[in-house]
Amino acid sequence: MKLPSAMTLCFLCIAASWCAAMAQPPPPSVKIEVTVDNSAVIANTGVGLFSGNFDWHLNKEEPPAWVNSSINIMKIDDPKTIYLASQMSPGHLRIGGSEGDVMIYDIGKHLPCKPGFCLSMDRWHQIVQFSQETKLQLVFGLNCMYGRANKSAKWDKTNSDAFLQYTAQQKLPVYGFEVCNEKEHDVNADVMADSYHDVHDMLTKYWPQASSRPKLIGPDENPDSSFLEEFLPMVADIIDIVTLHIYTGYGLDKDLAGKITTGAYLDKYQHTLNPLVKIISEKVPKAEAWIGETAAAWHSGQMNTTNTFLSGFWYLVSMFEHLLVN
User: Fold this and answer.
1) 14: exposed, middle or buried (C-beta count within 10 Å: 0-12, 13-18, 19+)?
2) Helices (DSSP H) in the chain: which residue ranges?
3) Rounded to an integer, what distance in angstroms lies between the CA atom of residue 105 and that of residue 85?
4) Which of 288, 299, 259 is nearest to 49 (CA)?
């Protein structure tokens, strides 16, 4: 007699187990009623909560997924790009990032541009047009390092002044201008505050009507409570929106995929955010607070981790934390 193979016996065992399970009556269902108490408002958030950012990174700086994504070269007249970006309306479109403090505006006399970091006025018109077509409110980061020799040196504002004057004369709609990007360790707090007052004076000069004047926004800083506590009182009477950058992890961390859904990883966001929001509310109570940049990991994230379902847990938790603090 030929004996059945081990594989056949395995299949027979699985089939028998399945049949036995199917023969069992289903467990009794339990009816659960959930009542939502909507009598009290926990927090409010603006319609622009979901917004996006374009930066100036060169292709050689980027992982493959982000090649040709610099706002200086990407095809922003592509109907698909316009359609996709418009789905964030009525949010904000921020143009900024690390290279924002390298960009030079090609108007009037200015220092030599580094390759890839010169903004022509034709391109500036195209960017503004893109924001109009997508119905996104444009936020633009000014180069606060132009002509600055060291962290205590005064800012050379001439290039930004010419750029802002041109923007006002051309009646180009801009929601707000940011000053500096993550320069809390490169520029002293009092020196950065002087730059903010310079920009405030320019905005007031070129947009005399407060109702049409772009907002003054910043400092786009990584979490640094001591810097905020020193900087904010010096700009409390002029700043409209205070922006923070919060990243939970690092894109080059080889263990990121294993960490990203853990409770310890997800709790980091709350522990970072809440103390900073408290400082902002105490030092500049009239200003709005924004998260200008955020992600589960900096350094453009990590392929097959932050661009997959895995990152969804971090996303939901971080959005919830934002809502709780308005």
Assistant:
1) exposed
2) 6-23, 79-86, 121-134, 158-169, 189-206, 225-235, 256-259, 263-283, 310-324
3) 25
4) 288
Would you give the DSSP letter of residue 55? -
**CA torsion angle for 240, 317, 306, 175 (degrees, to 10)?**
-20
Residue 55: CB atoms within 10 A of its CB come to 22
User: What pLDDT is attached to residue 23?
Assistant: 56
Residue 66 — left, alpha, or beta (φ > 0 → left; ψ -120 to 50 → alpha)?
Answer: alpha
Q: How far apart (Å, rounded) are the C-alpha atoms in residues 31 and 91?
A: 40
CA 11 to chain centre: 53
In three-state secondary structure terms, 94 is strand
In 3D, which of 225, 216, 235 has the Cα closest to residue 277?
225
pLDDT of residue 24: 66
Q: Which residues of the chain have pLDDT under 50?
A: 1-21
| pLDDT given at position 156 | 97
Tokens of 49: 């909560």
Q: For residue 139, what are the contacts with CB-CB under 8 A and spacing of at least 6? A: 92, 93, 94, 95, 96, 174, 175, 176, 177, 178, 215, 217
